[in-house]
Specification:
20% helix; alpha/beta; 171 residues; 3 helices; globular; two-stranded parallel sheet
Length: 171
């Protein structure tokens, strides 16, 4: 077998594997057993790396998400404090300490901005539910505590919820 064929085959197989493992933007309506949550509540199940928008006692929209890496996860109840399209991003002190080369502000819309196309900030902390400039990170334990979504998915969720929406994060 020639080296060109081997390289072409390896590239094709590798590309197929990458494409098949990456999360894809497509919220799904699913049946749930989450009758304890009111319609309109966002429930993030960290261990599943899924976000659910409760529609009624038996149905929810489900989205893949990236969540806090080891030591950066949290659980609790909060609310959406603000909604922003193409937000600028300032790295929190902990991120800046770990990555001092980061600028103090990355403008909204920049391909280097980790917030993606939209962000919904959460009350009581430095966390947000936001898009991403690294779509391959969705589905993993990857953040400093934020909930990361594919840009098409954050756009969909953003249109469905408002400031004040209850957010419950569970392990």
């Amino acid at each position: 077998m020639s080296m060109k064929i081997v390289l072409a085959l390896a590239t094709t197989i590798g590309t197929g594997l990458l494409l098949s493992t990456a999360a894809e933007a497509r919220p799904e309506m699913v049946g749930t057993h989450m009758a304890d949550y009111s319609p309109g509540t966002i429930v993030v199940k960290t261990n599943e790396r899924r976000l659910y928008l409760i529609l009624d006692g038996g149905h929810a929209m489900r989205y893949p998400v990236g969540v806090g890496k080891s030591g950066k996860q949290w659980a609790g109840t909060t609310r959406i404090e603000g909604k922003y399209r193409y937000p600028a991003w300032s790295p929190p002190a902990e991120v800046k300490r770990d990555k001092p080369q980061l600028p103090d502000v990355i403008p909204g819309g920049s391909p280097r901005n980790p917030m993606g196309v939209a962000a919904m900030t959460l009350a009581g902390g430095e966390y947000a539910i936001h898009g991403t400039n690294v779509p391959g990170s969705v589905g993993g334990f990857v953040s400093y505590g934020c909930i990361r979504m594919l840009n098409d998915d954050i756009t969909d969720l953003y249109s469905r919820v408002s400031v004040g929406t209850k957010v419950v994060v569970t392990r």
